[in-house]
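Human: I'm a chemist; would you kindly supply sequence and structure tokens for a protein?

Assistant:
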Amino acid sequence: SFFTTRDSFITYWVHGLSIGGGNALRTEWYQPSGALWSTHLDTLDQNIRYWYYYNHVNGPAVQANMPLGTWKVRFFVQNQPFDSLTFVIGVLGVQTQREKHVAITPNPARDYILVSGDYKDIKLFDALGREQKLNVNYFTNPIRIDLNGLPSGAYNLQLKDAQGQVAVEKVIVE
């Protein structure tokens, strides 16, 4: 996931099956340096068959001192690691978008898209920020990304080049 300096909050979600009452839940947020930024603790009141849990931190729009870069969230149940994920906080402004414009064809697309440029890491996220599995052929020019099996809708394509610069472009799947 990619968040910008304009985002007011960042939310982490997890879900699972069968968890007992009294279990301690802990969410830890780590800065790009690896230093702990925030910890949140909860205890479940009762047994739950199907459950979801979320926690959030104020984003860069509220906390201007949040470092840019790759962050990590870790989630524990009874002090045992249960889940983790990484996300990026970066600057994405109108000028950055103009400088880093990416040629994507066709867009809207059905089965595939072609991306012009030299990128080493390409990810696709749905409207809820969930990363989608992709089949990316980095060896073709332009780069070919197969979209087979993706439901129709709007997606954000995150592209990272060899220098670590990130571009985000909207992709419409018909």
In short: Residues 94-99 form the longest helix (6 residues). Residues 93-99 have pLDDT under 50 and may be disordered.
